[in-house]
Amino acid sequence: MTMEAKIRSLEDAKQLTDVGAINRLLQETITRERSISSELESMLVQRQVVEGRLVDVHLSSEVLELVRADSEQMTSSITTTCNLAERVSSKVRELDLAQTRVTDTIARITTIVERSNCVDGLKSAMDGEDYEQAAKYIETFLQLDATYLEDHVSTDTMEGAQAESHRKMLREAKEKLEEVVRTRFKEAADKRDHKSAVRFARLYSPLGLAEEGLLNFCGYIRSLVAMRAKEDYQALSKVLERPTTLEEQEEADFCGALTNVFQDIATALEQNEELLTTAFGPKAMVRAALEMHKECDTHGSLVIKRFAEFRNLKRLAHDIGRKGSSSNVELPDPRAVESYLEELLMICQRSEEYSNFLLDKMKDEADQAVSSPVNLVNSFKTGTFNLAVQELIGYYITMEEYYMNENVLKAVAIDEMAPGQLTSSMVDDVFYILQKCARRTLGASSVQCVCAGLNNVNNILGAQYMQALASRLRGGPGRLVQGLAVPSPLPGAATPVKTPGLEHAVAVNGCDISAEYVVKLRRELEGYVGDVFSAPHERERIKACLADLSETSAAFRQMSNTALEQLAQSLGPRLKPTLDAFQQASYELSEQEYAANELEDSWAQALVQIVETIVVQGLEPLLTAANYDVLVQQVVDAVVMRLEALVLQKRFNQLGGLQLEREMRQLVQQFAAVTSRSVRDKCARLTQMATILNLEAVGEMLDYWGDNAPGMTWRLTPAEVRRVLALRVEFKAEQISALLL
Length: 741
Description:
The chain has 741 residues and is mostly helical.
């Protein structure tokens, strides 16, 4: 409240006349007084805090004064140091510039001296015919001139004149040395003086003629290979053209002539590899390989062409391709074709080995030279020689397929059954032929050839051979079952087996053995693939073809199982009388009837005896172990299925259920005794039916069901269990329905 306001309030108070108004003003004044007193007390309480802070502020001002003084001193020192550093840095820059100029001057002086030494040394070397040293002087001079003098143009007229004089002298000497190197290299190449040729070939690069030197040297070593190849081809031509016997002409060594070309190229590259890489750079080996391969394109293709013409491969492949389209086509003897196949295989194998060697050599060098291996491979494979080899591979594939087909057809045609054998001769003969051809195909070392050969093997197995087996299976089950009563000769008898329907058993065995042979053939060929082919993509491609053999094996196995299923069905009439006896038998037995049944042979014993006679004694000697087990399994399936249906048609009392359980146990034991495979799973539903029918009460079923019998796996559903319980005459429908399963 301001002083003016206080005076005005005092004047107002003096003018008051009302006691009530005076009392209110008095109360307000007292309240105001108390408020002011409280504020004063609060301020007095904070006095010590304020005084303490004032002391701290006073102390801080003293410290700040010290800091200010130190900061001023530090600023002065930094300023002095900075000025000193600037002066020192300026001196250092001046010294560095001076040092650079001195170094540059020394380098120029050194270069002038070395250049003069090169010129003087070049004169002496040329006079003394020391061409290697002369080439080194020229190379050194060119390097000095390129790396220094071009970047430091001299302003000194005398020095410039001297440099130009040196360059002129060097150019004259260089031209003279180039002429000497070219002339001497040509003379050495013409004389086949390899040592001199190598000596002068090394001089091209120091003279800056690396490209020319590489081409000249490659031309030289190529001429050496060409000379040897020409001699071999002429010798081969003389053998083919002179009037000799057919046997002598057949001995013409085309593969040897071609192999010599490969060996000469490989030897030339291996022996000169160090020279090529050191004298002409990392790319030189690739260029040399391509240049040398041109000689293979020339002479190698010539040998292959002459081979194809002399053996009439084109006409032979054409005639084979026309097989079946015309009856007038005279087909070659498969034995003669085999000799061509062996020769073709050897040529293709050697060609593939040569190609792989050259490609590996070029890929390694291309990687080091940062070139494109893919382009090199493409250009290599499109050459004349490789196209000729591909044509030979086509002939080989055609002739190999013909050889396989003809020999397989012949094996089928001369098929015979030897005494005591479970299969006919056709099975072993066919797989021997296919195994032989597949191995031979792998020897070609060509993925294309191998895949085609494996596809042919698979096609023959799935077509001609499978059809031959299928034709022997038609109508056979009935004849085989009818002939079971005819005694068979003892195994190993000298006379052929004449049992009716025996051909069917042999054919079924052929399917089973063929399935095994196909699997063995695939495993064997897979082992060879890893030895012949190293590239992962090649292995995967061949394994994809081999995978088709697994499907063919499964097809043979299916044929065998189908034939055995038909055979099992053909046995149905033999088993029907005993099953009819079971159908007619009553299982609502009295104690006397139950006791009488124990003394008599039951239908189960009769059924086992028939199976023993027909299957075990009659068919087991005629079938392979695997086929016999499958047949027993299928017979058991048929018998069990029929018995299950008949059981559901009958009525049982407890003694009848006991009788059925005893018969089922006997049946399962006898079935298990005649096969190496388990039959309990197949008879599980039937034995569980017998167990249910043998219960004393409906509630006893819970002792065998669910958690109460953890070791028992029920094959019957709850509905089927109730249906079987309903077969008991003693069990009431209400009890069965109330059973919680």
